[in-house]
Design brief:
alpha+beta; 2 strands; RNase H type-1 domain-containing protein
């Protein structure tokens, strides 16, 4: 699956709960996204080194805007940043 790829990954998130859950591999009680969490844990285990860190949303505005655009526009394929809505490219 990951041939000729880096064995190190850095995951940055503005969800402190998500970061702590990935670090401890324990999901908070009644957090309703166990299937996605389980998949993330499986993906993390494929790397030799995985660093998960918290980035406050205010410091993560470009990624937050891109993720919001992806959700609203149902983007589910790879594309170049210039192919995304201009308001995202302007934020860079």
């Amino acid at each position: 699956m990951f041939t000729n790829c880096s064995r190190t990954v850095l995951v940055e998130s503005d969800s402190l709960i998500g970061v702590k859950a990935l670090e401890t591999k324990a999901l908070p009680f009644a957090w309703g996204s166990y299937p996605a969490f389980f998949e993330c844990c499986n993906l993390v285990s494929l790397f030799d080194v995985c660093v998960v860190s918290f980035i406050p949303r205010v410091d993560n505005s470009v990624a937050d805007t891109l993720a919001r655009y992806s959700r609203v526009s149902s983007v589910n394929s790879r594309c170049l940043l210039r192919e995304i809505a201009p308001f995202v490219a302007i934020a860079l």
